[in-house]
Write a structure and sequence with these properties.
Distance between the termini: 23 Å
CATH topology: Chemotaxis protein chec
Helix content: 25-40%
Number of helices: 6
Order of helices and strands: EEHEEHHEEHEEHH
CATH architecture: 3-Layer(aba) Sandwich
Number of domains: 1
Structural class: alpha+beta
Length: 150
């Protein structure tokens, strides 16, 4: 089971290559032999989703099973499945982010890799900081969170 936590500031070169931080690389090597899937996030937050291959193989059939006559479901399928790129970390722990995904998330040199338990999100540093600075006052809290104590 994945237990990805924490935020990591990383850099991407002009060719779209980025080095996965050592701690993350070691987790991915142990969990999935460094085989990952990188895809677009389907909501308004312009970031990418990075799944270890075993987690992706659990999620993918659920997305494929959505009713494709439903416009929202079809959009989700197109964004997530249509942008999915299976890749493997190279010997230096790097991946090459496809140009289409870089464009989707407005990725340039400075990035943030954010752990969310079973997956990572890959953000431009600028978008991540803007997200953190934004007010959550307009967001509706789900009932499940109202009883949560931190």
């Amino acid at each position: 089971m994945s237990n990805f936590l924490g935020s990591h500031a990383i850099n991407m070169d002009a060719k779209g290559r980025l080095a996965i931080p050592t701690k993350v690389r070691e987790e991915l090597a142990q969990l999935c032999g460094g085989r990952i899937v990188l895809t677009a996030n389907a909501d308004e937050e312009k970031c990418l989703l990075l799944y270890p291959e075993p987690e992706w193989e659990v999620l993918r059939p659920k997305i494929e099973a959505l009713p494709n006559m439903n416009k929202a479901a079809k959009r989700l399928q197109r964004l997530i499945l249509g942008n999915a790129a299976l890749m493997e970390l190279d010997a230096s722990g790097r991946i090459l982010v496809p140009q289409t995904l870089r464009n989707h998330a407005n990725l340039e040199k400075r990035l943030m890799l954010v752990g969310l338990g079973k997956k990572y999100e890959l953000w431009s540093e600028e978008s991540w900081n803007a997200y953190l600075d934004a007010s959550a006052a307009d967001e509706e809290m789900p009932p499940e969170m109202e009883a949560l104590s931190l």
